[in-house]
Amino acid sequence: MSARLEAEHLFKVFGRRPDEAVERLRQGADREELRGDGTTAAVIDASFSVGEGEIFVVMGLSGSGKSTLLRMLNGLLEPTAGRVRHDGQDLTALTDRALREVRSRKISMVFQHFALFPHRSVRDNAAYGLEVQGVPRAERERRADEALALCGLAGWEKSWPDELSGGMQQRVGLARALATDADLLLMDESFSALDPLIRRDMQDQLLELQKTLKKTIVFITHDLNEAMRLGDRIAVMRDGRIVQTGTAEDILLRPANDYVASFIQDVDRSRVLTAAAVMDTDPRGDEADCACETATPDTPFTELCAISARVPHAVAVLGTDRALVGVVPRQRLVGFLGDEDAEPTPCRNEGGEDGKKVISRA
């Protein structure tokens, strides 16, 4: 997967002598030391890349630096040190005018608070980015209507923002970002102000749109379940630093430190894990019957549990060529739902009742 966006050793320091503060951070100083001198290190040595068509989620608690990081990605904030590259172009080296051009055509942003103009219709709000670009009225209205239809707002084009629910207003904000046909979408806590049911509906909408549009998206959230649901990969931030980057399964099963482990302890594992994460990849003997119901590596955990309840043995996991790539014993499913360490471990065969083979966690 080619990288569309790259962040290279980004620092953002607010306060006196920021360049000096960066050097102190590089030499091992922490946030608290700088704060004592009246300096705030918002982002510290952040590096990552985002592949084409990927949803990359940055998550962390309030004050972790995630929103500051996002604003450096499109130049709303200038990094104290480090570089941001989009399609190989160094955004940190551009003039203000060139950067504004990039923001108007290549990078769109969806805010937490809908930021709609109350005196403009839904159509005119969705078309605003195109208006800034100088697109003729007829074309921008056509493109705005297409974006609104993608977001489920066909028929609402002539309405006013105050006639829409919160979820619908956020859809207008998303349509405005889509209408410009930007390569990169930056979404800053975009669903956080919504009620839980509407929020989940917007998550569904985004995932459905992504199947067709395949945008490159950086999504900021403080909600771990939202991050796990949306992210192809997730970066966890704490005190300005990225402490772990990986897939939802990587973070859930292999937390990098105690902070990440405590952060994920209340996650509903059944909504995240798949057969690939829990299967034993070294099956031996007759642990599973491939003639019965089987799973694939992408089978969701909840579906895997249902299959396991219907068969009297470990569930066989088959690859695209129908070859056996792993097995999932029932005990393993129970273990992954428990509070114990869920790191995948080899399974061993043990004698069961009547001499049958069963599999238990090692």
Order of helices and strands: EHHEEHEEHEHHHHEHEHEEHHHEHEEHEE
User: For the record, what is the CATH homologous superfamily label of the largest domain?
Assistant: P-loop containing nucleotide triphosphate hydrolases
Number of domains: 2
CATH architect. name of the largest domain: 3-Layer(aba) Sandwich
Number of helices: 15
* Arithmetic mean pLDDT: 86
Low-confidence stretches: 339-362
CATH class term of the largest domain: Alpha Beta
Q: Identify the strand order in the major beta sheet.
A: 6-7-8-3-9-10
Structural class: alpha/beta
Q: How would you sum up this structure in a few lines?
A:
By secondary structure, this protein is α/β, with parallel strands linked by helices. It contains 15 helices and 15 strands. It is 36% helix and 23% strand.
Structural features, described:
There is one protein chain. The chain is an alpha/beta fold and 362 residues long. Helix content is 36%, strand content 23%. The protein has helices at residues 18-26, 31-35, 66-73, 96-105, 122-126, 128-133, 137-150, 166-179, 196-213, 224-230, 248-253, 258-263, 275-278, 301-310, 330-337, and strands at 3-14, 40-51, 55-59, 81-86, 89-90, 107-110, 184-188, 216-221, 233-238, 241-246, 294-295, 315-318, 324-328, 347-351, 357-361. The strands form 4 sheets. It has a 6-stranded mixed sheet with strand order 6-7-8-3-9-10, sandwiched between helices. A 4-stranded antiparallel sheet has the order 2-1-4-5, sandwiched between helices. Strands 11-12-13 form a 3-stranded mixed sheet. Helix 7 packs across helix 8 (166-179) and helix 8 runs parallel beside helix 9. The chain starts with a strand and ends with a strand. Mean pLDDT is 86; it is low at 339-362.
